Structures are given as structure tokens and as C-alpha cells.
Amino acid sequence: MITTVTLxxxxxxxxxxxxxxxxxxxxxxxxxxxxxxxxxxxxxxLSRLGVRSRALGFNFSGGEAIPEALEAEDVxxxxxxxxxxxxxxxxxxxxxxxxxxxxxxxxPCVSSENIENLKSAVARASKDSSMIVLAGSVPKGVGAGxxxxxxxxxxxxxxxxxxxxxxxxxxxxxxxxxEPFMIKPNIFELETIIGKISSEDEIVSAARKLIAEYGxxxxxxxRGEDGAVIVSRDECYSxxxxxxxxxxxxxxxxxxxxxxxxxxxxxxxxxxxxxxxVTAAAGAxxxxxxxxxxxxxxxxxxxx
Length: 304
Description:
Blueprint: E1 2-6, E2 10-17, E3 29-36, H1 38-48, E4 53-61, H2 65-72, E5 76-85, E6 87-94, E7 99-104, H3 112-126, E8 131-135, H4 146-157, E9 162-166, H5 169-175, E10 182-183, H6 187-194, H7 200-214, E11 218-222, E12 228-231, E13 236-239, H8 252-265, H9 270-285, H10 295-302
Parallel strand pairs: 1-4, 1-8, 2-6, 4-5, 8-9, 9-10, 10-11
Antiparallel strand pairs: 2-3, 6-7, 11-12, 12-13
Helix pairs in contact: 1-8, 3-4, 4-5, 8-9, 9-10
């Protein structure tokens, strides 16, 4: 079983406009409303790729659609209900210039009881999980060390579990202390803890530094339209982005994590883990809104 953890779920509202005009009326074309949050997106992408998962995390008032949608996609749900209303993230696609503007709300503050309940849920779920994904931002009331704590709890419950971390800033820095199996930063997230990066060689060097310092086994770095780089202690590979029409970038990084997990469940070599990751990301950006590719689409794109 694959378990995902989402501490700050949301509803993603994606709309289209030609080009935003500041200090003027802007008319939009509604595109979609999707449940979201990084771990939730990984579970949804995995389901489309034929991999079952279990989704844990926090949920809030107004988030009833989240377990309903996930269960419809054959994802087991064990959310911790919290007080307050679920956040909505607005994504504005400026079609004339190919730019997406994101305006994200914050979720309400969670209680210490909510956090303890989540920790207990992670400990229980980890016992029969081969991998656990800790991903995304956190609501108020949650400390910066939460991913380190959850990673340690998961490994204590199941020493064989692979912890996969996708976070940024201090959440990533602290989470690294739990020695995750794999991290999936983008260039910006990597730069926030390493410093300015201007070449592929510097990406590999930065990744190897994290591997040596924190015991990470795999660093998967997403590079947007330049594809991705994957690094282990002894290997490194790069892969260009798969050329598809870009309809939305929402969920691309989460699809990349799902593609990597699919390859890991098959015990494929590192180079194939990268190829699967880049292919799954391409499948996501070829759809509008926060939508993920099917197994059939994935297999077709894998041949390109």
C-alpha cells in the first residue's frame, strides 16, 4: 500500500482569461473545480496509473467533496476533521501570453489534538505501507518540524517503509532530518536550501550534498519545460520534458512523484524512475485543471 499525507487540502478553481488588465474589469471563462493538495494529487495520479493508495491528512468544513471524490477513484481515506472552512486556490490562466497566476488561501489553524490524532493515523497506516508521501504546505498551528516527526513515526512503525518528501523551505530542511528515501524539489525549492543553481552539474552537486549530509537515497529535481534530473549516490540522469500541448501546469509535480512511485513499485532502475516521472508529469499538463493521465495515456506517452 502507498500512503499519502496532505496537511493543507484545498479546492483548486482554475479559470481562463486573455490577459489580466490591472485596475480594470477582467472577464473570465470558468474551467474547473478540483479537489487538491499535494498528497491528494499524488493519490489521484496513482489511481489513474493503476496503483491503489490511502490518503491521510487534515480536512475542514466544506471539504466533503474530498473523500467523496477520492473514494470514487478507489482511494482509501482516513482524514482528521478540523474546525474551520477549507481553503480555495484560484489559478488564473492568461491564454494570450501562456502564463498562470496562482492566488492561494490559507487553511484555518489546527489544534494540538488534531496533530496528535494525525500522528496516530500515520503510525497505524505505516505498518502496512511500502511508501509514504509527505507533501505540501501546512496550516497554522503546525510546527516546521512536522515532516521530520511524521517521517520518524512512519519509520518507527515500519523500518522498511520508504519516506518520500515533497516540501519547500524550512519544512524541507527539517524533513530531511528524518532521512527520507526520496525528495522531489523543483529548482526554486532546491535553491532555498542550497543556494543559487545555474547548471545541471550544479544540480547534481547540490543533490549529492544532500545525499551525503542527510542520508537521502534519491533526489528527483523537476525543471519545468527542461524536464528533470534524478540523482543517487552513484548515478545521475537527466531527461527532457515530453513534448505535449500545455493546457495546465497544476498537479504536474505531483504527477511526477506518482510516476516515480509507479516505477519504484516495479523495482525499475533509476533511469526508468526518471522516465516514468517525466512521462506522468507530461500527462498531467496535457489536461485542463488539476487532472491526471490514465494508464493508456501514460503508456502512449512513454513511447514518445
